[in-house]
Amino acid sequence: MSVRSLVSLSTLGTILVASAGPLMAAQEANGGRIEIDDPPPPAGDAVINQAGRDGATVRAFRVDEPLEIDGVIEEPFYSRVAPITEFVQGVPVEDGEPSELTELWFGFDDENVYVSAKVWDRAGPDGWIANEMRRDAAQLRSNDHLAVFFDTFYDRRNAIGLSATAIGGFSDFQITNEGNPNMDWNPVWENQSALFDGGWSIEMAIPFKSLRYRPGREQVWGVQIRRTVLRRNEWIFLRALPLSVGGGGTSGTFRVSMYATLVGIEAPPPSRNLEVKPYGIAGARTDLSVDPEISNDGYADVGLDVKYGITENLTADFTYNTDFAQVEVDEQQVNLTRFSLFFPEKREFFLEGRGIFNFGVGGSSGGGGGGGGGGQGGFGGGSAPTLFYSRQIGLQGSEPVPIIGGGRLTGKVGSFDVGALSIQTDDAPTVGAESTNFTVLRLRRDLLARSSVGVLFENRSQSTQSAGSNQAYGADASFAFFENVNLVTYYAKTETDGLTGNEESYQGRFSYTGDEWGGSAGHLLVGDDFNPEIGFVRRKGFRQSTLFGRYSPRPESIDWIRQLTLSGDLGYTENERRGFVESRARGGQLQVELENSDNFGLGVTDNYENLIEDTRISGATIPAGRYSFTDAQVSYNFGPQRRVSGRVSLRWGSFFAGSVTSLGLGNGLVEVLPQLSLEPSIEFNWIDLPDLQESAGQFNQHVVRTRMTYGLSPRMFVSGLVQYNSGSDTVSGNFRLRWEWAPGSELFIVYTEDRDTDVLGRWSGLSNRGFVIKINRLLRI
Predict the structure, then answer these.
(1) Residue 489, Cβ neighbours under 10 Å: how many?
(2) CA angle 490, 494, 495 (to 5 degrees)
């Protein structure tokens, strides 16, 4: 480890320790009793005070003896405490009576919070949608499930969610600023489901050690319950939600400010929770694409993660010799634009608590009836920059760079969200990476009922553009008024040695997200030298204006249609310095949501691109010039009630000086068994540019992906991801076994292989492969 690395890591430790004292003092100053936003607590032994749209308050009761988490509702607690049964249908009938009965209990002892339920359903197991067991799988949201959401700080904007299904599948996630869900938050908790004559039941035990909450023994939390009956496309809630909020089903639970209130929980005395998670790894790798070539190179290593609870609501995380070999490979994408592709973060250390570092995005609790502002078409490429993009840390392009270690502080102090991150990477001469420190500081303050303002600062000690360092900093604000009016804005600036152009970026975006009507308008500028090197910028040197409008009636006279959506959008992008139009996109769409949850869509988009220089797009060099082209799209989405579901789409029209025909299958799912599923995905793009001599004018781009998953249990699965990309002439496979052999402790066995090929199915040679075994152990002290 270099001297610079040691200095950086010690500096981080000093910052975290020095921060703890003032932050805890501020926290104590903000302590005291909490004013309840909902109806008064239920009196005596009553479990709920339900007031419909005016809110609901429920009570948790102390459990005399710890519940046995087996899914069976039989302990004395369940006969002593009456169940909560006053739930409200949100979709399809606003404030309607649920078609099925739900009985639910909240309990607690000195170790855990308990949530138990009997989910009555007359259809029986053959009528339920339950085809996924893998933890945190996206498909779980398309299964019949019961989910509980806790706003443990009662700040009416941040929450955690826990969800479970009849066959044992479960997920856990965080909601930040009434949106921005983080599905990769993985706390330690216990759950078990069981069947009974008339439905299924669930028991959950969530340790206080896995939660963050306000200091004090008597707790007041926000709470929401969501239950689905998907064969009827029905969504049921504890706190009533208007269609403009709950019309999207899952999106209704983002509106944390409309949660019910939970009283009665008595938190145990505070303790300084300490979690230590060492790991060991061994494997072998072959890489024939480097010089000199690597063949069957064996290796072994160890590392350590530490989590320390400074207070009930402030946590410090430290990592040493961090390794991400168990992470699933990126899904291949087709790029038919002149801008870079965005790949999501998948590494666990950077995923936990990531919501605090979001900048300039606001929440996403928008209403029903369709999406928010568009106006960028398929080719404008003018989306706002991402100021903090964690994939810039520990990766040089797609090649890994060793991470020596680092730390993170996240939590809430009064009305402030706090985030600090510092990571030190080692040098990697083979990919041209120097030893670098990455530091990010974030502070956000709650305002009014659902608004916030914040600042963010980043420093990269070694710039990729110069011999010096790189900094980025900015301020952002998110204002939410009434039920569906939102305003999001930011201003950011970067500093990089040697760059003399415009290093600023700013945006303002207004939106209205009602159920029947919706719209948005925005303006964005990104300077030609705006350079956040711990961020992601898809396009520079432009200013863009966007406009979007939507009308979404619910026709009562057509019983098989739930909602129609007619929308139009316009995007207008100018060169920032010279003022000429670079891109323009305008389009119209029709979406039809059926009562059985299928969707049908039609769309037309008219595009204009002004290329000021020859540009490489889809493997072709498009000559400089002005191009106008139009395409049409049609799609049909088969809902989750089917054994085979997914979105089939067709697009055809002109493309620059040629034509394009695209056929796609997205979000595909084939239910072979409740434990076995296939997820096919196809993107075929036939592109004809007859004026170009290279490749005889044919520049087809095809990507085929198939993921197979077999769930041995909710905490153990085997998965395989096989991909073919015609653009890079590669076939790859990634096969993983993940077993959570003890709470928070995991075993991974991973095999990855990439091959070069010039024809689908014809293998021409090995490019690289790797085999890894990794095991870790969570120790809670």
Answers:
(1) 19
(2) 160
Torsion of CA 382, 386, 391, 395, to 10 degrees: 70
pLDDT band at residue 17 under the 50/70/90 scheme: very low
Nearest CA among 666, 652, 662 for reference residue 685: 662
CA 118, 119, 124, 127: dihedral to nearest 10 degrees? -160
d(CA 432, CA 439): 21
Please answer whether residues 201 and 116 qualify as being in contact, where contact means their C-beta atoms are separated by less than 8 angstroms: yes
Q: Is there a contact between 727 and 332 (Cβ–Cβ < 8 Å)?
A: no
Residue 589 is classified by DSSP as: E
Residue 244 DSSP label = H
Q: CA angle, corner 267, sides to 264 and 271, nearest 5?
A: 175
Contact 441, 459 (CB under 8 A): no
CA 160, CA 176: separation in Å to the nearest integer?
Answer: 9
Round to whole Å and give the CA distance between 148 and 162.
Answer: 5
Q: What's the CA angle centered on 569, arms 566 and 575, to 5 degrees?
A: 175
Neighbours of 49 (CB within 10 A): 20
Position of tokens 């930040």? 176
User: For position 80, what pLDDT does the model report?
Assistant: 96
**For residue 13, what is the enclosing H or E element?**
helix 3-29
CB contact set of 292 (below 8 Å; sequence gap of 6+) = none
Distance between CA atoms of residues 639 and 139, nearest Å: 11
For residue 760, pLDDT beyond 80:
no
Q: Is the peptide bond before 429 cis (omega within 30 degrees of 0)?
A: no
Instruction: Look at the block and give the residue holding tokens 């996240």.
Output: 410
Q: What is the 3-state secondary structure (H, E, C) of 599-610?
A: EEEEEEEEEEEE
- Tell me how far apart the 2 most distant CA atoms of the chain are, in Å: 83
Q: Which residues neighbour 18 within 8 Å (Cβ) at sequence distance 6 or greater?
A: none
* Mean of pLDDT over the chain: 88
Q: Which two tokens stand for residue 24?
A: 């805890």
Is residue 597 within 8 Å of residue 233, measured between CB atoms? yes
Q: Give me the residue label for tokens 């690597």.
A: 294
Give dist(CA 414, CA 420) in Å, integer: 17
Report which residue type is found at 507: Q
| Strand stretches in 642-759, DSSP E | 644-655, 658-671, 676-688, 701-713, 716-725, 730-742, 745-756
- Rounded Cα distance between 222 and 370, Å, is 27
The size of the chain, in residues, is: 781
* Radius of gyration in angstroms for the set of CA atoms belonging to the chain, rounded to a whole number: 26
For the record, the structure tokens of 643 come out as 């054994």
Q: Is the CB of residue 360 less than 8 Å from the CB of residue 488?
A: yes
* pLDDT value, residue 606: 97
Give 265 or 711, the one with higher predicted confidence: 265
| Residue labelled with tokens 């993170």 | 408
Q: Which two tokens stand for residue 499?
A: 């760059």
Task: Give the model's pLDDT for residue 530.
Answer: 97
The residues that bridge with 683 in the sheet, in sequence order, are 664, 703
DSSP H or E segment with residue 308: strand 294-311
Query: What is the Cβ-side half-sphere exposure of residue 391, based on CA atoms within 13 angstroms?
Result: 14
Residue type at 562 in one-letter notation:
R
Letter for the amino acid at 186? N
- Global pTM exceeds 0.70: yes
Which helix (H) or strand (E) segment holds residue 243: the answer is helix 243-246
Please answer whether residues 278 and 301 qualify as being in contact, where contact means their C-beta atoms are separated by less than 8 angstroms. no
